[in-house]
Design a protein that fits this description.
By secondary structure, the protein is α+β, with helices and mostly antiparallel strands. The chain has 2 domains: 77 residues, Helix Hairpins; 146 residues, Heat Shock Protein 90 (2-Layer Sandwich), CATH 3.30.565.10. Helices cover 56% and strands 16% of the residues. The strands form 2 sheets. Strands 2-4-5-7-6 form a 5-stranded mixed sheet. A two-stranded antiparallel sheet has the order 1-3. Helix 3 crosses helix 8 and helix 6 runs antiparallel to helix 8. It is globular and about 80 Å long.
């Protein structure tokens, strides 16, 4: 018997099966990770393609028919293009923030700020989305309206994400309610919709990255609430959700009051 044959003869069927199982155990997680990455990339590409297509069509019509379009029709095309740009901006901001979170590079610069201008800016960012569905936002203030500690740009991003989420889950012509309540040490912002609500099981995972509610309308990357949680926590606040199925949902966050 040759030396190589002798070596082979010492490898039992059980050992071969164990080696194969070990190899599969190493390969399978990689295969699953690759499949998840491919699915996420396909989702991102799909989400970017829709507003880009709308933007291109609007601009093409403006360019090709600029001499014949009545002013009101031209204005509608410009507004549609603006909504597409705002949608793209929100998607890119969320993707950029998620990448920064994963890399541990997400930064906030907390200063003393007023919430009311930030609320106005956030509502302006989602105005196109609200207009598409004939929705409105009502804001209520309780307390003395003391300044808070926050990063203005990040707070605007938080509120815009919560408003966009509320709009997506609400029916047409609905009203989204925002309540700002100041207490001794912090200020709480509550964003409430009248949508289908969120089950207790979903509430446990709703702030995870790439998570979308079962009753969500088509579209969306499932990043907004994860970003909200990361930003608020970095600013020294807390986030939460209150919901009963069939009775809408309220997402809230707190920020520390300025000393």
């Amino acid at each position: 018997m040759s030396p190589s044959a002798a070596v082979l003869s010492t490898v039992s069927p059980a050992a071969s099966s164990a080696s194969f199982a070990t190899l599969v155990g190493k390969v399978e997680p990689r295969r699953q990770a690759t499949a998840r990455e491919s699915a996420l990339l396909a989702t991102v590409a799909h989400e970017l393609r829709n507003p880009l297509t709308s933007l291109r069509l609007s601009l093409d019509m403006l360019v090709s028919e600029i001499d014949e379009l009545p002013p009101e029709s031209a204005l509608l095309l410009i507004q549609r293009a603006q909504r597409s740009v705002a949608h793209l901006h929100g998607l890119i901001e969320n993707l950029t923030s998620t990448t920064a979170v994963d890399a541990g590079h997400l930064q906030v610069n907390a200063t003393t700020m007023d919430l009311e201008p930030a609320l106005d800016e956030a509502i302006g960012l989602v105005q196109g989305l609200l207009a598409q569905r004939n929705q409105s936002v009502e804001v209520y203030f309780a307390g003395d309206g003391s300044p808070v500690r926050g990063d203005r740009a990040r707070v605007v991003q938080v509120i815009a994400n919560l408003l966009g989420n509320a709009s997506k889950y609400s029916v047409e012509r609905d009203t989204i309610e925002v309540h700002v309540m100041a207490s001794a040490h912090h200020t709480r912002v509550r964003v409430s919709d009248h949508g289908p609500g969120i089950s207790p099981q979903e509430q446990q995972r709703i702030f995870g990255a790439w998570q979308r509610g079962q009753s969500a309308a088509p579209g969306g990357l499932g990043l907004g609430l994860s970003i909200v949680q990361n930003l608020v926590q970095q600013l020294g606040g807390r986030v939460g959700v209150e919901s009963t199925l069939g009775q809408g949902a309220t997402f809230w966050f707190t920020l520390p009051n300025a000393a």
